[in-house]
Amino acid sequence: xxxxxxxxxxxxxxxxxxxxxxxxxxxxxxxxxxxxxxxxxxxxxxxxxxxxxxxxxxxxxxxxxxxxxxxxxxxxxxxxxxxxxxxxxxxxxxxxxxxxxxxxxxxxxxxxxxxxxxxxxxxxxxxxxxxxxxxxxxxxxxxxxxxxxxxxxxxxxxxxxxxxxxxxxxxxx
Length: 173
Known about the structure:
This protein is mostly helical and about 170 residues long. It has one domain. It is built from six helices and no strands. Helix 2 runs parallel beside helix 5 and helix 4 packs across helix 5. It is elongated, with a radius of gyration of 18 Å.
């Protein structure tokens, strides 16, 4: 799903309900970062597969690890912002939560793309795609859309609860 918002669906739909356990900004970013590869291929007209090495379980893993480490390093600067936009709670997540979010997000991206595209070799160095099944496209796209809808509704509920709590606190003060 190059450059599509479809990967944001699983990022929001799974990430927000799990925000007490995994770092949601890392998870959301991990779900879309793998598509840097097709973006660069198309942007620069590279003679390289649209879905190359980043779209393998083997390389998605260290990309997720690196992303988890990087977002962990920036956490102390960005946490206040993440809390304002309700992507984090008051629970301080440990390093492991960032790593899990990064790896789970990048691997999920590969898992969702593998059935859709014949040029993906998800099990590299095995040069085949046993997961390729384009007939699953409607189900995969539908799943991503509905997870996105769920994530957006969940986010607006979080916002409503937060606003209601602040209004209630003002009345009681």
